[in-house]
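for the writeup, i need someone to sanity check this before i put it in the appendix. the sequnce is what the collaborator sent (i think, or maybe the updated version? ugh). structure was predicted straight from it, no edits. if anything looks off just tell me and ill rerun, i have time this weekend
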Amino acid sequence: MSAPTKPKVSEREARQVAEAAREQDWRKPSFAKELFLGRFRLDLIHPHPLPAPEDVQRGEAFLAKLRDFCETKIDGARIEREAKIPDEVVNGLKELGAFGMKIEPKYGGIGLTQVYYNKALALVGTANPALGALLSAHQSIGVPQPLKLFGTKEQKETFLPRCARTDISAFLLTEPDVGSDPARLATTAVPDGDSYIVDGVKLWTTNGVVADLLVVMARVPRSEGHRGGITAFVVEADSPGITVENRNAFMGLRGLENGVTRFHQVRVPAANRIGPEGTGLKIALTTLNTGRLSLPAACTGAGKWCLKIAREWSSAREQWGKPIARHEAVGSKISFIAATTFALEAVLDLSSQMADEDRNDIRIEAALAKLYGSEMAWRIADELVQIRGGRGFETAASLAARGERAVPAEQLLRDLRINRIFEGSTEIMHLLIAREAVDAHLSVAGDLIDPEKTLSDKAKAGANAAGFYARWLPKLVAGPGQLPRAYPEFHPPGHPDLSAHLRYVERSARKLARMTFLAMARWQGRMETKQGFLGRIVDIGAELFAMSAACVRAELLRTTEEHGREAYQLADVFCRQARIRVEELFDRLWTNTDDLDRKVVGGVLNGSYTWLERGVIDPSGDGPWIADATPGPAKHDNVHRPIR
């Protein structure tokens, strides 16, 4: 059998593949989608949805057992030191049921809600972030989630009990030359009777080094009886022809079992195909709609730990006659950590509860939670390192060796950095969310800017667009945000006034929609190339979503718990900080250096500034920028390491 050639894909073809994988319809309401359209639908998130009592009871019972296990059985410093999660820890988590948190009880799992699953990930991730990555890669994007959504009855009965108790799963999409552009996927699955023959190389296979089961994305060639396209398969990790060629090492997450996996003539039964041929990317993207919430869970847990350390350290450390927390330069950092951590938990819990209720379409909310959580948690950790000073840069082992508390602040900074890249980098998330945010515009005016459409198609699109904008644009002129007494329930006596912040969100949502429309009118078909502008649009939406979530959560805590007044204070401070960021982003929509940046980039690429690179030594080793991924037999030893 000849080796498959690497697909040659044009930019337009790549976009078509990505577009075809999107969920095209909006069958349920979406708070974030409405927000980008200038409609502040507070009714979609307030009153804050709550879990059922039985879900709370089951979730809290599991969290208690998990906390005890984390405190007594997990040595996070050992994992960091040895760059490996001990087998006994993994087996202990299996016995506890942690690998089946999201799997239904009828398949041997615990059946936690998304809310409590995320609480569990936040908890175990603070013991050691690699543990959170192990569990989330297994359940959020590994075998359980795509089978839950798209698997057959037989597949669920075969694989889910294994995933719940004994087997570890991994998700294999990325390749050495394929990242966020899956149209160039080179791994193939060639039909052969009642099986497929898989050939190719997969990179950054989280859990792949220790996995028992794999979700593999491969391209099925089009042929008679086969529609072809990128397709998802469940593959046994010990199948003949599978070789884990390398266990990758990273800046952080040193216990992460992430590798390079080669497939050479691997036979996979057709019964293991998930969904029809050609639906693999849609399955992957749909899985990620809620799967992405695992990352903001880890980020929220990190924020809580940072707040604890900042409080304890800045109270104990004195400079110039008083604790450093009492100095404004440090105090402002502590305020940012506290307020932002409150907002991160608000965004996470709101998005998770909406996922559990399944009343709303949360594809944008989950993406915003991932984007916002990963960016803000990184800033929180960076501020903690700054507050700790030289001790923040020093390793926990070094601190302990000289008799001080082993605080792994620098480790957290390293561990959190990947979250801005994992499961869609910040730049890709900007584009993904922006595409959903302008979906309504493209639905009515897309044909107007499509160069391949006929004049009659454009005329029809123009008529449709005229009708849509005639109804939509007038609604962006005025709204409840201009009414001084709107949202009165968010200004109870004796509490900060959160209603003013919600009015700001409403006004800003309409302004955001107007800015998006102006950009569409100005750039039309070139809008998709204005990635700087689109990124700022998305960042504004993320801040407005976080402000909304923070206010709604504060009101929930005021009416249901004893910390309502403190919650209102945190929400108020967060919203004031967020409003400053929003105003800056609005200013930068039109006042920026995007055009000049493109010119500089051109100069860098054509060598105009190579003189600026003189006077340094490049310590990089030899070798290609991208490793050879030509299909064929393995040339390396198999480092696959099943947990014993």
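Residues 64 and 120 are 10 Å apart (CA to CA). The longest helix spans residues 328-357.
thx in advance!!
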